[in-house]
Design a protein that fits this description.
Blueprint lengths: L7 E4 L5 H12 L3 E5 L5 H8 L5 E4 L6 H15 L4 E4 L14 H29 L2 E6 L12 H20 L5 E8 L5 H12 L4 H12 L8 H12 L10 E4 L7
Parallel strand pairs: 1-2, 1-4, 2-3, 4-5, 5-6, 6-7
Length: 257
């Protein structure tokens, strides 16, 4: 059902992976889409346009607040503003704290945390003026637990959940909600790289994937982008209107241990 007809969704980092899966789910539900990501997005735009809504693309580097502001100005000018904001863009770097490059820390905090703040602060006035809005932050199980070598990522994702709680409280009496989704392992290029590293050490490909999942995710199955997209649709629905400031785990049992 086209439950989101007339709504416009902005999904950051949406030209591949989790972001694209979420964008496709929103498009299927009737939303207009503003995609965000680097490079030529023509093939992705055509994929999303298949569902009949309007589709735009803005190549903002979300580590730069000025480019985020330009993206939100584009949304206002071309689509009449943003009704649904999905903060999904993220990067990763793995190293021990004492060996963690300062510039990589700064980049991860900028893209994974500060960008969420800037997109949110710029979207909220329009949502409040319209009397409806949904802000959905793609956090991670690493917003609630730590992992060795992921200091910046874990710090940023913990920050995203804290920010989500504050925005959820500040909008609690309005028709704007703010929530976080906390995926476990999703088979993204970043995760595939970890599997490939195991394969390179001589482990069978299926065994390498199994071993990665078995370390953290009891279901031994990856979360899929389409499953994340369906959860986004629930949070956009009337049924999700009293889910506020939540950090929703979708992690195959990771955090139940």
């Amino acid at each position: 059902m086209k439950t989101l007809n007339g709504k416009t969704a902005l999904v950051t980092g949406s030209t591949s992976g989790i972001g694209l899966g979420i964008a496709l789910s929103l498009a299927k539900a009737g939303a207009n889409l503003i995609l965000n990501g680097f490079g030529d997005a023509s093939a992705v735009i055509a994929q999303v346009e298949h569902y009949g809504g309007r589709v735009g693309h803005h190549g903002a580097d979300v580590s730069d607040p000025a480019q985020i502001a330009d993206m939100l100005a584009y949304a206002e000018r071309e689509f009449g503003g943003v009704d649904i904001l999905v903060n999904n863009a993220g990067i990763q770097h793995v190293a021990a704290v004492e060996a963690f490059p300062a510039e990589r820390w700064d980049a991860i905090i900028a893209i994974n945390l500060s960008a969420v703040f800037h997109s949110t602060r710029l979207s909220l006035p329009g949502m409040k003026a319209k009397g409806w809005g949904r802000i959905i932050n793609i956090a991670s199980v690493h917003g609630q637990v730590g992992s060795v070598g992921k200091a910046a990522y874990v710090a940023a994702k913990h920050g995203v959940i804290g920010l989500t709680k504050v925005v959820g409280l500040e909008t609690a009496t309005s028709n704007v909600t703010c929530n976080a989704i906390c995926p476990g392992w999703v088979l993204t290029p970043l995760v595939q790289k970890q599997i490939d590293e195991r394969i390179a050490s001589g482990i069978d490909p299926q065994q390498a994937q199994h071993d990665l999942l078995a370390e953290k995710q009891p279901s031994l199955a990856f979360v899929t982008p389409s499953q994340l997209g369906e959860l986004v649709l629930f949070l956009c629905s009337d049924a999700g209107s009293q889910v506020r400031g939540a950090a929703w785990n979708i992690d195959g049992g990771w955090l139940a241990q």
